[in-house]
Amino acid sequence: MLVAPYRVGVDIGGTFTDLVMVDAKGAVRAFKSPSVPADPTEGILDAVRLAARTLGSTVESLLSDTELFVHGSTIATNTLLEKKGAKVGLLVTRGFRDSLEIRRSIRENVWDHRRPFPEVLVPRYLRLAVDERMDHRGKVHTPFNPASIAEAAKVFAEEGVETVAICLLHSYANPAHEQAAKAELQKLLPNVWVTLSSEIAPTIGEYERVSTTVVNAYVAHRVVPYLTHLGARLKSLGLPRKLLMIQSNGGAISVDEVSHAPASLVLSGPAAGVGSLKFFGQDTGSDKLISIEVGGTSCDVTLMQNGAVSMTDQIVVDGYHLVIPSVDINTVGAGGGTIASVDAAGLLKAGPEGAGSTPGPACYGQGGERPTVTDAQLVLGRLKPGPYAGGAIDLDLDKAVKAIETHIGRPLGLTVQEAAAGIIQLVEQNILHSVEQASLEKGYNPREFTLVAAGGAGALHGPATARLLGSRKLYIPRLAGVFCAFGMCNSDIRHDMVKSWLRDLDAPDEKGTLGLNSAFEKLQQQALETLAREGFTGSKAELRRAYDLRYFGQQWTIAVTCESTDPAEVRKAFELQYQRLFGYVQPDGAIQIANIRLAAIGKLDPLEIARVPADVNDPMPCAHRLVWLDKEHGTVETPVYDGTLLTPSQKLIGPAIIEETTTTIFVGPGDRLRMTDAGNYHIDIDQTGALA
User: Fold this and answer.
1) What are phi and psi of 157, to 5 degrees?
2) Whether 589 and 502 share a structural domain
3) In which element (H, E) is residue 193 found?
4) Could you tell me if 53 and 26 are in contact, meaning their C-beta atoms sit under 8 angstroms apart?
5) Do both 86 and 176 map to the same domain?
6) For the segment 90-134, what is each residue's pLDDT rounded down to a tens digit?
7) 74 and 94: one domain?
8) Taking a C-beta distance cutoff of 8 angstroms, is the pair 371, 408 a contact?
9) Given 183, 204, 220, which residue is the final one in a domain?
10) Closest Cα to residue 459, out of 222, 680, 134?
11) How many helices (H) does the chain have, and how many strands (E)?
């Protein structure tokens, strides 16, 4: 029996909507309900109904006892990917009409000269000029002319424009002209949603700023009504507090606060893993974690050190650039639904195409005929045939065998088992490369980190990935299959604020460092007011300072966390980061501040780890089945354990299969598994014979 009040996290996936409830004592219950792509709100309410029914309660009673309801959604991302956004108009400073197409005039991949850039989201006839201009210091060069707004409004009205993005030159230094343009436009077109670059992306960089503002306007028409409707439905059913959304920065935000910046939700689902990493870090006993969250279509890799994840403000979604604070997530197309094929050169491929939820893998029996990673795991015995997720899917071994034999085995002259093993090995190499990109390429040694395998499929690939990395520590949460939904229950409120500064670090202005202090104080005042609106004051409101810094003459900056405004302390923090990334520093190099940043954190009460009674007896398998282990061992009769019966302190040595409620765990030969005090899985990887 759960004890109120509850925290509820809901994550919508392509196949299932995951709902996790955490009660007042830290007890957790997880539920999976089929997603409803045509109406995500109904999918969420179906999951709530399932939870209420299972607990012997009503929807109204459950929601009235819920203190936090947190949601992660891919609706912003899907709107962009599916090109189903609003008809957008764009207002720019006269002479800067074509920034979206000019981009940065460079090829992001210098070896690919043929791939076209993505289609611009605003056609040229809807990109209109405003008579005005600010200089880079924020001083008026050309006064604002309201008549140009009237002309633009007439065109927008005739063309049926639904949202408008306003991005005027140097508005990061002085937003007055953008604000004036918005005020004039709203007088003329009161029903048109308007967004300003000075609000969504007040930073230097004309192309990135206009791209971010346009994407924000493009997705708003679907995202804002959806969130408004969902929040209203939950409130009408008894939810006492406003719905919270997970942002790309890994923090939560109320629907009221996010309504002006829906683009901040483009990584809403995967970013929720930060909350899980913070929580499970207590159980691992390590402050160095790398998570691989393997779902149906992709694997998301996140690195956490000293309780903080790597962050970035440069993300690309389907070729569109956004400068919004985000968890630095490295994604590769390696999931359970990843399709395997043989290319024209006779080489085995895995991805990037996926089977999705419809028709899904061949073994789902829903019309899919092409082999996937899930089909391969089934053929190798790591998954068992039959029903999963309460009968929502039923894995058919014969269909999996047929798909792999037809599309992989015969073309390559391999047995079905050899073909399936090849698919798994290739996918695990792809996961390995993604982990290396998130760690080695950024100056971190992955062998110093504990690998956290999460997602519905992560626990099947975790041991092999750890072995390939040379890592000896693997951690698998019992809630691996609802990793992100659980993380939402442990995600603090977060607002990120930024101000362009473009000053020499070592050349104080006429007021010494007081100018920098004053700039931070203004951001802090704004941040505290925002947190107060969401109910966080005093010790519940935490502020973190950071800088975007570079050596003079360099184009790109690096983010540096530092609370001090003392140039010597800031330089020390910068050089530490620079040395890690590039292997050298310029001891006497001039450092330029590009931006100052402030993270405003509304601290939730930390979740307590619910301890489970220990059992010193060896666990007993519930069954045995033939499982292909690796090239060395081949197929071996392997014990299968019911994960729900395993308790803290119990140990076993692989090979083994553990079937949990939301995932299946594969323990490799010689690997030593120990149940933690919280009932999760810690595995010491056997590196005997592995590459050093």
Assistant:
1) -65, -45
2) yes
3) strand 193-196
4) no
5) yes
6) 999 999 999 998 887 766 676 777 777 888 999 999 999 999 999
7) no
8) yes
9) 220
10) 680
11) 19, 37
Residues facing residue 554 across a β-bridge: none
What is the residue-wise DSSP string for 101-158?
A: HHTTSS-SSTT-SSSPPPPPSS-GGGEEEES-EE-TTS-EEE---HHHHHHHHHHHHH
Three-state DSSP at 619 gives: coil
Q: Which amino acid is at 59?
A: V
Please check whether residues 552 and 649 belong to one and the same domain: no
* Total count of residues recorded for the chain: 692
- Taking the C-alpha atoms of residue 549 and residue 596, their distance in angstroms, rounded to an integer, is 9
Residue 539: which domain range?
493-602
Q: How many CB atoms lie within 10 A of CB 407?
A: 20
Whether the CB-CB separation of 64 and 239 falls below 8 Å is answered with yes
* pLDDT tens readout for residues 168-226: 999 999 999 999 999 999 999 999 999 999 999 999 889 999 999 999 999 999 999 99
Confidence category of residue 511, pLDDT binned at 50, 70, 90:
low
Residue 13 neighbours by CB under 8 Å, 6+ apart: 35, 269, 295, 296, 357
Q: What is the 3-state secondary structure (H, E, C) of 442-483?
A: HCCCHHHCEEEEECCCHHHHHHHHHHHHCCCEEEECCCHHHH
In a shared domain, residues 127 and 57: no
CA distance 371 to 354: 10
Number of domains comprising the chain: 4
Cβ contacts of 615 within 8 Å, gap of 6 or more:
647, 648, 649, 650
In angstroms, the Cα distances linking 686 to 471, 666, 672 are: 9, 14, 8
Same domain, yes or no: 107 and 180: yes
210, 259: one domain: no
What CATH number does residue 116 fall under? 3.40.1360
- CA 269 – CA 415 distance, rounded (Å): 38
Q: Are residues 85 and 216 in the same domain?
A: yes
Long-range contacts of 355-362 (CB under 8 A, 24+ apart): 356/14, 356/296, 356/297, 357/13, 357/14, 357/15, 357/35, 357/296, 360/15, 360/393, 361/336, 361/337, 361/400, 362/396, 362/399, 362/400, 362/402, 362/403
Classify residue 552: in a domain, yes or no: yes
Cβ-based neighbour number of residue 106 at 10 Å: 6
> What single-letter amino acid sits at 258?
V
CATH code assigned at 18: 3.30.420.40
DSSP string, 309-360: E-EES-EEETTEEE---EE--EEES-STTEEEEE-TTS-EEEEEEE-TTTT-
Residue 388 lies in a domain: no
User: What is residue 405's DSSP assignment?
Assistant: I
DSSP-based helix, strand, coil % in the chain, nearest 5? 35, 25, 40
Could you say which of 239, 269, 299 is where a domain stops? 269
Helix (H) or strand (E) holding 581: helix 567-582
pLDDT score recorded for residue 21: 95
Q: Is residue 458 part of a domain?
A: no
Is residue 165 included in any domain, yes or no? Answer: yes
Alpha carbons 661 and 28: distance in angstroms, whole number: 13
CA distance 483 to 460: 15
pLDDT at 691 over 50: no
Interatomic CA distance for residues 557 and 559, integer angstroms: 7
The answer to whether the CB of 635 falls within 8 A of the CB of 626 is yes
Backbone angles phi, psi at 165, to 5 degrees: -105, 135
Whichever domain contains 594, its CATH number is 3.30.1490
pTM: 0.88
